[in-house]
Design a protein that fits this description.
heterodimer; A: mainly alpha; 3 helices; B: alpha/beta; 26-stranded mixed β-sheet; 26 strands
């Protein structure tokens, strides 16, 4: 969908990644908690996924800013 | 200026809808659903926000500096706290306060260590066996021996073997007393709050024993006991089979309570999900809310059930009763019976003796067997259908404030009067009084067909196989044994 849009501003990719970081974290948190409550996987074990997602976001932000 | 997120209005609509459903269907365990499925709110929120941002980006609108604002994170933290607390409070998880949250402290890296336990004591013929408060499962079986014998394993959750060994040492398994009183003690309270110890026990006892068990969480499976049984637990699944004496259960949150072949009186207090009683020879008294499958079959003595929204009592049940969500199906009931409920559809077939029903919201369908006794059925909003045997004698008075009346089958005996909104029916052939009333709903009186099947289905799920977890030694125990 984004391919059909006008050319973005120079800072656009960095801003987009930064804006997406929070919702991505929120969705991951939701999935982990849902998996915990369904009895699939304890949140006590899966919480590092949040750190990984946060790290990945920051990495993408860094790459986008360059 | 950029518009706000679409999530908040959607959340408000969803909240409104939830409260509306709660008001319309009071029996629906909405809080249970909320406690279990609330994380999907976070998922929906996150996905909607991602879609929004992608849309803004695609349409070249200004993007927010951060996808979720500081205020929204505060709200999310509050929501997580509320959700996990609700989830733990309703007993779906073993997070705090009964155990510890694995995120904090050493338990992130902790694992389970398993130690075998065993003990034996000679006992009299009719000893009292006391299980002091513990966490874990107990299977208690009565047998021919005059000894009390315990085998099983203890599970310690700890960071390393040394800590687990220490926890194992400070929580020795003890079996004390002898003769007519034996105490089984797990000493789980002696470990620090951060560690968790649970014991799974198989206990064989003399058949004449009485059992007194106190538990925090876990399953009890008690079979072939001639004496009384008392179980007091915070969270437990309880299965009883072939119990000779009085039974008293107080379980604050139960997944399942099942009792089969209990000779003495049965007294149950607490809250839970499934409840299944079959072949009960004593008086049954139940005080509590059970939101899952509730089923009764073959009760020889009176039952008194007091739930948060439903009260039932009758003298005897030769058929069965099933009370799934929003319904009450019964067959072969012996009265005097009384049923008072806020919101259930009621179907009762083949009942004798007097019956008194009061429903706030729900349809009532009754099919008495001969001889027909006094019936008094009231519903505020719902239809009433009464199917009488063709040869029944009765003295009928039926009124509805809004709705039709119909007794075409008994045209010669029953007189119908339909007014502008409601209607009345009167008719007597010299039988007992039958009074039907609906504030809003149709009333139909018809002749029953002798071949109509009973309302409650004959077959209920296999009592013996559904339910409790089996006692299996975990892998670690097998490893330790080698």
């Amino acid at each position: 969908m984004s391919a059909a849009t006008p050319p973005p501003l120079p800072s656009r990719p960095g801003a987009l990644v930064r804006a997406l970081c929070g919702p991505l974290l929120l969705t991951t948190l939701g999935i982990l908690l849902a998996a915990d409550h369904m009895g699939r996987m304890s949140f006590g074990r899966t919480w590092p996924v949040l750190v990984i997602v946060f790290g990945a976001c920051k990495l993408a932000e860094y790459a986008g800013a360059r | 200026m950029r518009r706000g997120s679409i999530f908040i209005p959607l959340l408000l609509i969803a909240l409104g809808a939830l409260f509306l459903i709660h008001n319309l269907y009071r029996e629906l365990p909405l809080l249970d659903y909320l406690a279990k499925y609330w994380p999907f709110l976070l998922i929906v929120w996150g996905v909607l926000r991602i879609a929004e941002i992608l849309f803004w980006s695609a349409t070249n609108q200004p993007l927010p500096v951060s996808g979720i604002s500081g205020g929204e994170w505060v709200f999310i933290i509050f929501l997580c706290f509320f959700g996990t607390t609700l989830n733990a409070a309703l007993g779906f998880s073993n997070w705090f306060p009964r155990s510890r949250f694995e995120l904090g402290g050493i338990d992130i890296f902790g694992e389970s260590f398993v130690y075998p336990i065993s003990g034996e004591k000679p006992a009299g013929k009719n000893p009292r066996i006391v299980l002091e408060s513990f966490r874990g499962n107990a299977r208690i079986m009565g047998g021919g021996d005059s000894t009390v014998k315990v085998t099983g394993h203890k599970t310690v959750r700890s960071m390393d073997q040394n800590n687990a060994d220490r926890a194992n040492e400070v929580t020795p398994f003890e079996i004390e007393g002898g003769g007519d009183r034996i105490v089984i003690r797990t000493n789980q309270d002696r470990v620090s709050r951060g560690q968790r110890v649970s014991d799974d026990m198989e206990i064989s006892v003399p058949k004449g024993s009485s059992i007194e068990a106190h538990g925090r969480s876990g399953d009890f499976d008690i079979t072939n006991i001639d004496g009384s049984v008392t179980v007091d637990a915070d969270r437990a699944a309880v299965r009883l089979e072939n119990i000779g004496g009085e039974t008293r259960l107080e379980v604050r949150g139960s997944d399942v309570i099942r009792a089969l072949n209990v000779k003495g009186n049965f007294d149950l207090r607490g809250n839970g999900s499934d409840l299944d009683l079959e072949n009960m020879d004593g008086t049954v008294t139940i005080d509590g809310g059970y939101t899952g499958n509730v089923a009764f079959q073959n009760l020889s003595k009176p039952l008194h059930f007091t739930g948060p929204q439903t009260e039932v009592s009758f003298q005897k049940l030769t058929g069965q009763i099933r009370m799934p969500l929003g319904t009450f199906n019964a067959s072969n009931l012996v009265g005097p019976a009384r049923l008072e409920t806020r919101s259930r559809d009621i179907q009762i077939s083949d009942f004798t003796n007097t019956l008194e029903i009061s429903v706030d919201r729900g349809d009532v369908e009754l099919r008495p067997s001969l001889p027909v006794s006094k019936i008094d059925a009231h519903t505020r909003a719902g239809n009433i259908v009464l199917a009488l045997p063709p040869e029944a004698s009765f003295d009928l008075t039926a009124t509805t404030n809004r709705g039709d009346v119909n007794a075409a089958d008994f045209g010669g005996v029953i007189r119908q009067e339909q007014n502008r909104r409601g209607g009345e029916m009167h008719g007597s052939n010299g039988g007992p009084p039958i009074e039907l009333h609906s504030d809003m709903g149709q009333i139909t009186v018809r002749k029953a067909n002798p071949n109509e099947p009973p309302f409650a289905p004959r077959k209920i799920q296999d009592f013996r196989t559904k339910g409790l977890k089996q006692f299996k030694a975990p892998k670690e125990l097998r490893r330790l044994d080698q």
